[in-house]
UniProtKB/TrEMBL annotation:
Function recorded in the entry: Catalyzes the phosphorylation of the position 2 hydroxy group of 4-diphosphocytidyl-2C-methyl-D-erythritol.
Record EC number: 2.7.1.148
Keyword tags: ATP-binding, Isoprene biosynthesis, Kinase, Nucleotide-binding, Transferase
Reaction catalyzed: 4-CDP-2-C-methyl-D-erythritol + ATP = 4-CDP-2-C-methyl-D-erythritol 2-phosphate + ADP + H(+)
The organism's place on the tree of life at top rank: Bacteria
One MF annotation (Gene Ontology) recorded for this entry: 4-(cytidine 5'-diphospho)-2-C-methyl-D-erythritol kinase activity
Protein name: 4-diphosphocytidyl-2-C-methyl-D-erythritol kinase
Active site: K10, D128
Species assigned in the record: Paragemmobacter ruber
InterPro entries per the UniProt record, alphabetical: GHMP_kinase_C_dom (IPR013750), GHMP_kinase_C_sf (IPR036554), GHMP_kinase_N_dom (IPR006204), IspE (IPR004424), Ribosomal_Su5_D2-typ_SF (IPR020568), Ribsml_uS5_D2-typ_fold_subgr (IPR014721)
Taxon lineage: Bacteria, Pseudomonadati, Pseudomonadota, Alphaproteobacteria, Rhodobacterales
Binding residue positions for ATP: P89, V90, S91, S92, G93, I94, G95, G96, G97, S98, A99
Family (UniProt): Belongs to the GHMP kinase family. IspE subfamily.
All residue ranges annotated as the GHMP kinase C-terminal domain in the record: 203-264
Length: 280
């Protein structure tokens, strides 16, 4: 019997680049949340390991050995036939590969009773894998290994839009002019309601937006298209782009905004989804 695990999109509501390590990795201060749209990883334990990639974003991804899903399975020491339903665009700033790797770790741990790998091994899969493995809103620090709990966030809806151009994360980091930017406020405020959450996001930054937009001006159009929608409280780029998100109060306005953007830009990937709340 195949078991399945959801791999939700990771959204950087803020992303401050506050330093650079000697090895070139950047130190971040980022408020990360998850959206109710994502990929799905399914597996059957088998002596013959394999990976089958399906779904609307499968093109361009292979089931070859360097796929993060297979790397995660190897880290778990588990041999399985794995199916990845790819819904999230690849190289798009919403953690697709990291989310898939984290879902694979969770799934194979659940199926076999094995322990999850240690923090260093998780981080070695990718800087966003630790937060995706935690799977709940967090303030992320270091290069991705530091995870601090944040006060509960209000129920909000997200519209995600991507112009279907893949972004090279290393190239965006290389194009960053300053790496010593100010962090977020030391204390994360308790944000009551979407208006307060949006006001907080609007006062913070994504320091990768400027270098990403310099390389790919279409990202500016994506952000503007979200901002222009009725009910959009704030719009920003996530991660190193090109996906941008808009924050909305309710599912109806998010759905209407997504439909309007889809109608105007049929080539873009657009999704509306709730901001996932921690299940406790
Ligand atoms: O860890 P991951 O493979 O996701 O990172 C991809 C690239 O993004 C790294 O090779 C590095 O160039 C850049 N990066 C960075 N600082 C981070 C995360 C990623 O410079 N905190």
């Amino acid at each position: 019997m195949a078991a399945t695990e959801f791999a939700p999109a990771k959204i950087n509501l803020t992303l401050h680049v506050i330093g650079r390590r000697a090895d070139g990795y950047h130190l971040l201060d980022s408020l990360v949340v998850f959206a109710g749209v994502g990929d799905r990883v399914s597996a059957i334990l088998s002596d013959l390991p394999s990976l089958d990639v399906t779904g609307p974003m499968a093109a361009g991804l292979t089931g070859e050995g360097d796929n993060l899903v297979l790397r995660a399975a190897r880290v778990m020491g588990v041999s399985a036939r794995i199916a990845l339903e790819k819904v999230l665009p690849v190289s798009s700033g919403i953690g697709g590969g990291s989310a898939d790797a984290a879902a694979t770790l969770r799934l194979l741990a659940r199926m076999t009773g094995r322990a999850l790998p240690g923090a260093a091994e998780v981080l070695a899969l990718g800087a966003d894998v630790p937060v995706c493995l935690a799977g709940r809103a967090a303030r992320m620090s270091g290069i991705g290994e530091g995870l601090a709990e944040v006060p509960p966030l209000p129920q909000a809806w997200l519209v995600l839009a991507n112009p279907r151009v893949a972004v090279s994360t290393p190239a965006v980091f290389r194009a960053l002019v300053r790496a010593d930017n100010a962090p977020m406020p030391r204390e994360m405020p308790r944000l009551r309601g979407v208006a307060e959450l949006a006001a907080f996001v609007a006062m913070q930054r994504n320091d990768l937006e400027a270098p990403a937009m310099a390389e790919l001006p279409v990202i500016g159009r994506v952000k503007a298209a979200l901002s222009a929608q009725a009910g959009c409280r704030v719009a920003r780029m996530s991660g190193s782009g090109a996906t941008c998100f808009g924050l909305f109060d309710d599912p109806l306005s998010a759905r209407a905004a997504a439909q309007a953007i889809r109608a105007a830009e049929p080539a873009w990937w657009v999704a509306d989804a709730p901001l996932l709340q921690p299940q406790s």
